[in-house]
Amino acid sequence: MDRTLPLLLDYPDDALLAERGRIARAAPARLAWFARWWAGAEPRVLQERWVADFDLRGGTALYLTHHRFGDRRDRGRALVALKRLYREAGWELDHWELPDYLPLVLELAAVDPRVGEPLLAEYRVELEAIRRALERAESPWTEVLATVTDVLGPVDEDAVARLLDEGPPTELVGVDR
């Protein structure tokens, strides 16, 4: 996995903005248009668009377990398992993000493909659903997600359609029906 992908998908904070030119020049040729846009956009415009595309649309959230487990208890167990996977791979997470944050998973796949790539493949359906939701929103980040999903091979189309139609599962614990 290309090392620029996690950077291109992460929130453009001040540190990332300071490195945009270098990152854009290192981006895969397939992402030339996106890299030019990303590197040249006004910082505030880039940040606002990122928030609109990833924080304000549930279907495009970059937290993989959210799409699979929603707010069910299983998500907590999956996050603990991911933390264990990172630790076993020699990574101590000092980053403030949850271990299912896609830029973090992509970083793992770039640095340690034997661990990160199977993890991406495990969440193939969720990644495709995020890509299609971004496409519907006409997000410039669609191409970045397509760069990821295209290397992961075929996807279960029925599962993607179900996830897009129904969204993440919910748990009705303690709620009267």
List keywords for this structure.
177 residues; mainly alpha; 12 helices
Structure description:
With 177 residues, the chain is an all-alpha fold. Helices cover 63% and strands 0% of the residues. The protein contains 12 helices and no strands. The protein has helices at 5-9, 14-18, 20-26, 32-40, 43-55, 64-69, 74-88, 102-111, 113-122, 124-136, 142-150, 157-166. Helix 3 (20-26) runs antiparallel to helix 4 and helix 8 (102-111) packs antiparallel against helix 9 (113-122).
Number of helical stretches of at least 4 residues: 12
What is the helix fraction of residues, given as a range? 55-70%
Question: Taking all residues together, what is the mean pLDDT?
Answer: 92
The description of the largest β-sheet is:
none
Stretches with pLDDT under 50, minimum 5 residues? none
> Radius of gyration over alpha carbons?
16 Å
Broad shape: globular
Structural class: mainly alpha
The fraction of residues in strands falls at under 5%
Layout of SSEs?
Layout: H1 5-9, H2 14-18, H3 20-26, H4 32-40, H5 43-55, H6 64-69, H7 74-88, H8 102-111, H9 113-122, H10 124-136, H11 142-150, H12 157-166
Summary?
With 177 residues, the protein is an all-alpha fold. It has helices at 5-9, 14-18, 20-26, 32-40, 43-55, 64-69, 74-88, 102-111, 113-122, 124-136, 142-150, 157-166. The radius of gyration is 16 Å and the shape is globular.
